[in-house]
Design a protein that fits this description.
The structure holds two protein chains of two kinds.
Chain A: H1 6-17, H2 21-35, H3 52-57, H4 59-71, H5 73-77, H6 82-85, H7 87-96, H8 102-119, H9 125-143
Helix pairs in contact in A: 2-4, 2-8, 8-9
Chain B: H1 5-18, H2 22-36, H3 55-73, H4 78-81, H5 83-93, H6 98-114, H7 121-139
The chains are: A mainly alpha, B mainly alpha.
């Protein structure tokens, strides 16, 4: 069982309550597709992904980025059982979407960098540690149902 | 995933912006590494103070960034350029190469914090590739 201190819980809820999902979601997803271009394999039918500019302005990517970020809301609301909360989503990513679970960490790293850019020096080492711990638990939960 | 001519240009241009803040960035990246990845503290048991912004962390952050700046200057042949640094890491320091990735990640996070408008996705990918190539050159002499 993952243990969360009161401080860690409040850090996570604070980050997400101050988040502009429509900005951070698209930025994180498009950064992932640009920095790790092999991740584009999952978006073959999203239209033009030929270069960084195209990716950044692609409306399908923008919509999907927002959707993915909202997907984290359930983990924020159920921090004591992220594994159970994401069991279905894990099955979806494995059986329907066929996403290599290594990719989850790549998106998590891009999200960390986008949040760091937004929060600036407010993204202290302690806050970074908590945020990365949260994302690591999410990533692990999403990979749990793969077989 | 070797560095293209464009990657090298991008890295050099970005590093010109990093240079005036290099010591600060080094200190911040190292501090974060020690806090976020506590297992990395095992390499610094000889330091009295491992807290963010402490004297040894400041000094070492500057040393590390000096090495990275050197690598930028030698970007056309990292293996040859970093030969003696590789020997140092392989035979004396014996840092597990997995940690190069960890430090690289924290350098990227600090770049995003300190240069949010310059650290675009296009710059991010070039710098990520460069730090990966740097790590490979540093690991050259390990075995």
């Amino acid at each position: 069982m993952v243990e969360w201190s009161e401080q860690e819980r409040s850090i996570i809820t604070s980050i997400f309550s101050n988040l502009d999902y429509n900005d951070v979601g698209p930025k994180a997803l498009s950064r992932c597709l640009i920095v790790y271009p092999w991740t584009q394999r999952y978006f073959a039918n999203f239209g033009n992904l030929y270069n960084a500019e195209a990716i950044k302005t692609n409306p399908n990517i923008q919509a999907h980025g927002t959707k993915v970020l909202h997907g984290l809301d359930r983990a924020v609301k159920n921090m004591d059982n992220i594994k159970g909360t994401y069991a279905e989503l894990s099955v979806l990513h494995s059986e329907k979407l066929h996403v290599d679970p290594d990719n989850f960490k790549l998106l998590a790293d891009c999200l960390t960098i986008v949040i760091a850019a937004k929060m600036g020096s407010g993204f202290t080492p302690e806050i970074q540690a908590t945020f990365q711990k949260f994302l690591a638990v999410v990533v692990s939960a999403l990979g749990k149902q793969y077989h | 995933m070797s560095l293209t001519a464009k990657d090298k240009e991008t890295v050099k241009a970005f590093w010109a912006k990093v240079a005036p803040k290099a010591d600060d960035i080094g200190q911040d990246a190292l501090s974060r590494m020690l806090v976020v990845y506590p297992q990395t503290k095992t390499y610094f048991s000889h330091w009295k103070d491992l807290s963010p912004g402490s004297a040894p962390v400041k000094k070492h952050g500057a040393t590390v960034m000096g090495g990275v700046a050197d690598a930028v200057a030698k970007i056309d042949d990292l293996t040859a350029g970093l030969l003696s640094l590789s020997e140092l890491h392989a035979f004396t320091l014996r840092v597990d190469p997995a940690n190069f990735k960890i430090l690289a990640h924290n350098i990227l996070v600090v770049c995003a914090i300190k240069l949010p408008n310059d650290f675009t996705p296009e710059v991010h990918v070039a710098v990520d590739k460069f730090l990966g190539a740097l790590a490979r050159a540093l690991s050259e002499k390990y075995r």
